[in-house]
Amino acid sequence: MADALILHEDPCSGNCHKIKLTAALLGIPLELRQYDISKGETRTPEFLAGVNPHGRIPVLQVGTRFLPESNAACWFLAEGSRLIPNDPFARADMLRWMFFEQYSHEPNVATLRFWMKFVGEDALTEQQRFLVPLKRAAGEEALALLDRHLQARSWMVGETISLADVVLYPYTSKCAEGGFSLDGFAAIRDWIDRIESAHGFIAME
Amino acid sequence: MADALILHEDPCSGNCHKIKLTAALLGIPLELRQYDISKGETRTPEFLAGVNPHGRIPVLQVGTRFLPESNAACWFLAEGSRLIPNDPFARADMLRWMFFEQYSHEPNVATLRFWMKFVGEDALTEQQRFLVPLKRAAGEEALALLDRHLQARSWMVGETISLADVVLYPYTSKCAEGGFSLDGFAAIRDWIDRIESAHGFIAME
User: Fold this and answer.
1) Using 50, 70 and 90 to split pLDDT, how confident is the model at B38?
2) Cα B63–B69–B74 angle (5° rounding)?
3) Taking the model in full, what pTM does it have?
4) Residue B51 — very low, low, confident or very high, per pLDDT cuts 50/70/90?
5) B67 and A92: CB-CB below 8 Å?
6) CA distances from B178 to A59, A74, B10, B136 (A)
7) How far is B199 from chain A (nearest CA, A)?
8) What is the dihedral sign for C-alpha B164, B166, B169, B170?
9) pLDDT higher than 60, residue B159
10) Angle between the B163-173 and B70-78 helix axes, to the nearest 10 degrees?
11) pLDDT given for residue A38 in this prediction
12) Does A67 reach chain B within 8 Å, measured CB to CB?
């Protein structure tokens, strides 16, 4: 890749960790620019005009172009690599789990981690308190589905690690910080061990 | 494609329409199996065991394999076609908007359509009533972002229609059914006209 790769990120974010983990597994160097979400640093006029009008990180900068959405950034880094299956059905099935992650897993498992660990339970708004049990139930459903899927296989798709594993790993492995438990999910715990043993693995800071 | 393609779907669902629209634009025949979400037909033991353990449609059946997640099914049908850009950055940017659709647009714009049109405002639960203003605000933010993006271009990515347009079209075009208005969003209205003029376009039933 000729263009310089700069990741606009917050080290606390699992969505950012996915991208750094993809890069680490593939040996791709990334320059990091750090922001603190909790201080509103991704909502400044400069950030909105220059990096992402949606006011969110991560954003992968590729030369002078900007790519928001964590899973799209993982895809960009991994195209043509061993992290994306060659078989067309398996490739689509990998994307299926990446969409599952963003629709059914992250909004519940990651949001509760953010609220419990970074906002703090006592500081939650009335709205957030109302949402906690809904997100708790939906997050548990997502984790249970993941566990059932992994009971019959080592990796989410095919016979080796792919982006489906990489993008589901960060918030699943940190789910206890949001009050979830993996006690009943042995297949998930074994899968986490497999990912953490992969050559090039890096932990979230 | 050698395998028979069967779409497990509900004709009321925009997520199902995306897949039928992708197939129509590319001239790919799909066999349809219809379910009524509102009657729980995707939560039966047979459906959970045989089609999708997540209890959701659409699911694209490819021979004997099953692919849940609407945007993954669109990808599978469109691989190698004119609906996916050749340029790697543009391809990732298309996926960026597909993830945006599932994370920031569909959970708000589509859910309010379902609640207002199919459940009925008077039949909403207390929980759903609480969520309406949150989803209203988030849906309006997503539509505003879409409109700003389209003010400078004809299509979401590159110079021609891609899956980013196809997957954002169904719920955006039907957003009034969820109580949203496109009155202030001329760029979105023009983009809808362009999509509906595309060769092969089919409307939602």
Assistant:
1) confident
2) 70
3) 0.97
4) very high
5) yes
6) 31, 33, 18, 9
7) 25
8) negative
9) yes
10) 140
11) 82
12) yes
Helix axes A163-173, A88-100, angle to 10 degrees: 20
Same structural domain for residues B92 and B189? yes
Q: Which is nearest to B170 in space by CA: B11, B8, B7? A: B11
Q: What is the pLDDT of residues A177-201, one digit of tens each?
A: 999 999 999 999 999 999 999 999 9
For residue A50, the distance in angstroms to the closest alpha carbon of chain B comes to: 14
| Radius of gyration over every alpha carbon of chain B, rounded to an integer in angstroms | 17
Number of A–B residue contacts, CB under 8 Å = 95
Q: In the listed set B46, B78, B110, which residue is the last one of a domain according to the structure?
A: B78
Q: Which residue, chain included where needed, has tokens 């984790």?
A: A143
Residue A118 forms contact with B (CB below 8 Å): no
In the prediction, which pLDDT does A3 show? 87
Is the domain of A144 the same as that of A70?
Answer: no
Q: Say yes or no: A74 and A98 in one domain.
A: no
Residue B40 CB burial class (10 angstroms; 0-12, 13-18, ≥19): exposed
Question: Do B92 and B191 share a domain, yes or no?
Answer: yes
ipTM: 0.97
| Structural domain harbouring B160 | 88-196
Residues of B in contact with A70 (CB under 8 A): 99
- Check residue B37 and give its pLDDT: 85
- Determine, for residues A127 and B134 on separate chains, whether the beta-carbon distance falls below 8 Å: yes
B120: tokens are 């009925």
Q: Which helix (H) or strand (E) holds A66?
A: strand A65-68
Tell me the HSE value of A172 on the side-chain side, using a 13 A CA sphere.
32
pLDDT score, position B3 = 87
Determine contact, residues A59/B80, Cβ cutoff 8 Å: no
Domains identified in chain B, total number: 2
Instruction: Report the half-sphere exposure of A42 (CA within 13 A, side-chain side).
Output: 20
CB contact under 8 A, A68 and B100: yes
